[in-house]
Structure formats: structure tokens, C-alpha cells
Amino acid sequence: xxxxxxxxxxxxxxxxxxxxxxxxxxxxxxxxxxxxxxxxxxxxxxxxxxxxxxxxxxxxxxxxxxxxxxxxxxxxxxxxxxxxxxxxxxxxxxxxxxxxxxxxxxxxxxxxxxxxxxxxxxxxxxxxxxxxxxxxxxxxxxxxxxxxxxxxxxxxxxxxxxxxxxxxxxxxxxxxxxxxxxxxxxxxxxxxxxxxxxxxxxxxxxxxxxxxxxxxxxxxxxxxxxxxxxxxxxxxxxxxxxxxxxxxxxxxxxxxxxxxxxxxxxxxxxxxxxxxxxxxxxxxxxxxxxxxxxxxxxxxxxxxxxxxxxxxxxxxxxxxxxxxxxxxxxxxxxxxxxxxxxxxxxxxxxxxxxxxxxxxxxxxxxxxxxxxxxxxxxxxxxxxxxxxxxxxxxxxxxxxxxxxxxxxxxxxxxxxxxxxxxxxxxxxxxxxxxxxxxxxxxxxxxxxxxxxxxxxxxxxxxxxxxxxxxxxxxxxxxxxxxxxxxxxxxxxxxxxxxxxxxxxxxxxxxxxxxxxxxxxxxxxxxxxxxxxxxxxxxx
Length: 539
What we know:
By secondary structure, this protein is of the alpha+beta class.
């Protein structure tokens, strides 16, 4: 009698499973594909990508994280690579392409070791050793920087913008970024909170017309035509309650039996609104910034008293105005007095492009400022904004850690040299993984050379020879194709860009290498019923 063994189903129908080397190859291939996508954008001669959404929206950029976010990536391993870019963006604000390209190269070189039958955990351990040593070396070779090193700060800012769409105006924009950071820097701790630097953008003028406002620019116009357009020596009341008659919390009914009562009711309402304005005027305020709504009558009374007002200002902007003007946000008008008011040299309504803005400027010691970014078209302005954000992130990061390194591929070549020496001290198979890590770091100068149309082998050979002679900041000049002293040439980056990129790329590549089984759920039909396409039950 034949024994029919019933097959055992552990996973639902439609589940896809990839095992062992196939799973590793698949994941590595996806990671390499992501890295290849952004690789051509690296460096001063990097190219841009045009990303078109399903709705036809266009983004033109060479910012790594923007490209990867817009691409709508599905593959699980590829999503992990995108996470590197997002972390780099959140932590530093720049260096996203570097981090992703490095992760792709680490996995590519790991694949060669896997083909030589080296176990993934050995490679992973070797990568961890290499990463730890790389962070040590980076901290050792980095140079100090302080808030007074304006020349270095300007060079950091310029380096961040080189190769971006803002190249033609990078000197002017770099100056604006350095000034903005030095204004909002905390006097006690020396830290810079980028939340205190507002970026307003408008198309319709040259990049060179971008400017730094010592105060805040609001995308709002005055709420009544009768109000003055300009207020000099502004005393600003920051109010976070509505300047309207409050509605009752519970349902209430007012019964009016004759017209005189109706008139009395309306008179009382008007008196309450007039009292609000009197309290504001009594405090000495000549500008009102309101977070909520303002009644039409209140607008009229404010205009009569020559007070400039804007309404429905966001909570974030209210906090920035308070920091810029030294004012306090008030919710009770009875408490409003002169000490609560913010001070500004001038508050005025100006037209920028087609829109009216409120400029609160000439603040004495503003701890919040605005960079007004201009450009020929919307796409240009968006890309300049990304470049400015990168520069601000770099400056804040450099001042926070107090350490910087040179760019142009010099740091990566120096790191690779140290790691090769470190590999010689290891006896096990980890040595091969450390060497693979060192080789992976060279992808940065190699890519810079390739993107500039240079021969990468010649460039790398020259760079390595210069570093062996002790020139730790020898980098590639992509415009001449020659080796240069990157530090002397002013190609400077914050240390955090490098440490974050190395640790993130290393950790994610280790994580991907250790995966030997990918189980992807299929669409599942509910038990007891036929399945419809897409796994929907049929009723």
C-alpha cells in the first residue's frame, strides 16, 4: 500500500522565497543599482537627474536624497540603501550621494569575497573592524575649526554648493549662509539650530538677487487696505489667540424679543472688539502678528489706529519672530505690556514676484533670520534651496563637532592607506574584508574622476603616490585633472559628513550581507472563499 505523504504548507499561498546565495545576490544587485543611479551626480562635474511623477510634476536635481525619495523604490534591500541617504540628510544635511555610493561599492566588493567562499559573517566582522578603525583615523586627521574661522566657514559653504545648480552665484550664497549661521548661533553653547534659519523662495529674479534678512519674512500681506504699508521703529505684539468674539463651548440660545435688544446685543459685541484693540494700542504696539483669525471690525479699528496686522501665522513662524525680535508670544490681552513686545527697525509689505510679503527686518540681535532665495524659474529656485540647505547643514555640523577635513577625494585615499596598513596586522580572513573596505573607499575619488571625464586609474595612481609621500590632503582637481592640495584649494567638508557616511554605509552593508533568506508575502485569499485578483475576498 503506497503511503501518500500530505505536503505541509507553512507559508500562505503566493509567498515568494529566495534562499542562500540567490537571496544575497539579489539584494546586492538591488543595492548596486541604487548606488549606480546617483553615482553620476557626485562632485563638481556631476550631472543632474530629471524626475517626472505620474502627475507630470518635474524635479531637476543632483541631490542624492531627493533623487532617491522621488524614485518611489520598491525592492526591500534597495529601500535599506535609501534609508542611508535619509539618515545622512537628517544628521548632516549633505553627503547623501557619498554615503549611498560607498554602500553600493562595499556590497559589490563583498560579492567578490562571497564568490571566493568567504562566509558572510566573516566579511561582516571585517567590515565592522574596518569601519571602527576608519572613524578613529578620521578623528585623528581632522583639523579644528571655530566660529571665528570665517574663511574656513565660507570654504565649507562654497564646497557644499559646488556642482549644484547654484554654482554661478555660490560666492554670494555662501556669504549669506555663513552670516545666517553666525547670527543664530547660541552665544552660550555655540550650537546652531537650523530651525532658526527660515528659507523663503520666489522665482522671477537672478540668483544673485538672493538676500539675507536680519529678521523674518512672512508669506502674508497686511489684512486691511487702511493699514500703513511701512512701520518704522516697530513694536510687535505676538498674539496666539483669535481677535474675534469667542463662540461658547456649549450650545447656547439667546432670545431677543424686540429690536432694541438686538441693537444692544450688537453694540455690546462691538464694544468687546473695540476693547481688544484698545488693550493692544495701550501696550504701545504698532504691529500685530496674530496666529489665529481677526474679526472684520477689529481689522477696521486697528487700521484706524495705524496699526499694521497680519493673521493666521503658523506656530513655527511665531516662534521665529519671537526669537528674531526678542518679543514674547501672548495669549491673554489683559497681560500685554511693553516688555512683551518685539522690536524691529522696520516692518513693511513688499511685493516679491506676484505675491505680497511682510518683511520684519533690521532686528538688533536676531536669533532667527531669513534667507530669501531668488532664481529664474521654479525648478531653479528649488535646486538653489536644496544647495543652500546642504551648505547650512555643513556649517552647523562643522561648528557642532569643531572638526573638518578636506574634500576632493583626499580623505578617502588617506583612509584607504591607513586601512591597508591595519589589514597587515590581521591574520584571519577578516584581513581580506578590511582590504575590500579600503578599496571601496576609493570609489569616491574614482567617481569624481569618471564624472569629470578623466582616466580613473591614472588619477588614483597619482593620488596614492602623493599620499605615500605624506601629503594627507592630496586630492583631485577635476577641472585640470591634476593632483592638488585640497586644503589649500579651499575644498573643505565637516568631519561628520565622512564619519556618518562611513558608519551608515558599513552598518547597512553588514545588515544586507547577513540576510540569506527573503520571504515575501503573496496576496492571500481568505479561508473558506475564492480569491479575487489582488487577494480581495469575493462576497
